[in-house]
């Protein structure tokens, strides 16, 4: 399995503020409709193999889902395909919301 890093909800705002990060929400369209992290790219997990090339390889990529399981799969896949500086958001959007992170609809 390829290497990816874990990022916590406490660390994520600093990475976002750097301007060199892209957030990728790999949940289903129905889940995303309930809210997402502002600025996130919506890319359901099952479409990732077909759309991986659409991501900016020059930026750090943070995958997230509801709790962190699916996004770990996405991060592993992306890293194995050669995408550099890949992260999985620990605890997913649930942890983000519980920490007071902004959710947009």
TrEMBL record:
Residue intervals of the Rhodanese domain: 17-105
Parts forming coiled coils: none
One matching Pfam family: Rhodanese
Highest taxon of source: Bacteria
Cited PROSITE patterns: RHODANESE_3
Stored InterPro entries: GlpE_sulfurtransferase, Rhodanese-like_dom, Rhodanese-like_dom_sf
PANTHER family, sorted: FAD-DEPENDENT OXIDOREDUCTASE, SULFURTRANSFERASE YTWF-RELATED
Name of the protein in its database record: Rhodanese domain protein
Provenance organism: Sideroxydans lithotrophicus (strain ES-1)
Upper taxonomic lineage: Bacteria, Pseudomonadati, Pseudomonadota, Betaproteobacteria, Nitrosomonadales
């Amino acid at each position: 399995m390829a290497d990816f890093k874990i990022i916590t909800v406490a660390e994520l705002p600093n990475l976002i503020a750097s301007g060199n990060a892209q957030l990728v929400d790999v949940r289903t369209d129905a889940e995303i409709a309930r809210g997402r992290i502002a600025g996130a790219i919506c890319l359901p997990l099952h479409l990732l193999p077909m759309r991986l090339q659409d991501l900016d390889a020059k930026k750090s990529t943070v995958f997230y889902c509801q709790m962190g399981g699916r996004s770990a799969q996405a991060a592993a896949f992306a890293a194995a395909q050669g995408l550099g500086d890949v992260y999985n958001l620990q605890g997913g959007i649930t942890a983000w919301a519980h920490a007071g992170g902004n959710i947009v609809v």
